[in-house]
């Protein structure tokens, strides 16, 4: 069962163990349903030992496995565009390493981000609240290196 983080918003989810018995850990946040398309599920920040972090946007229905969706993230007027890669199963668009740097840095002080995904005319958009991210991120990182 997911454990509630510092607010009711972030959930800490353990992942499967690797061959050394170390588990990936992620924190997830559901998109603001009043300001998002129904296809926008939320944001996942995952840490895998030895502390590698990646950011993914979760959607339904899934994207085709070889899709390379364009993802624009606007945080307080600072819009960044990324080429994502689709995770196995198609419901997560994994962003490049630069997005992990945003989650560890500038996003820690923001209330929300606006996300827009475009893949060959399929457009999904929404807002994701970031309140409570600093303690949730710190707990995820601490559990990641245990």
From TrEMBL:
Region listing for Disordered, in residue ranges: 1-22
Highest taxon of the lineage: Bacteria
Protein name stated in the entry: Uncharacterized protein
């Amino acid at each position: 069962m997911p454990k509630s983080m510092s607010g009711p918003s972030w959930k800490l989810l353990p992942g499967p163990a690797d061959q050394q018995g170390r588990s990936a850990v992620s924190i997830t946040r559901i998109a603001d349903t009043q300001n998002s398309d129904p296809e926008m599920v939320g944001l996942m920040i995952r840490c895998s030992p030895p502390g590698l972090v990646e950011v993914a946007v979760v959607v339904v229905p899934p994207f085709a496995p070889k899709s390379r969706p364009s993802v624009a993230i606007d945080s307080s007027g600072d819009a960044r565009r990324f080429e994502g890669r689709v995770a196995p199963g198609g419901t997560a668009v994994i962003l490049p390493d630069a997005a992990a740097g945003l989650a560890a840095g500038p996003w820690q002080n923001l209330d929300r981000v606006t996300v827009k995904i475009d893949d060959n005319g399929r457009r999904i958009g929404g807002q994701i609240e970031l309140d409570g991210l600093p303690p949730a991120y710190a707990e995820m990182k601490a559990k990641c290196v245990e």
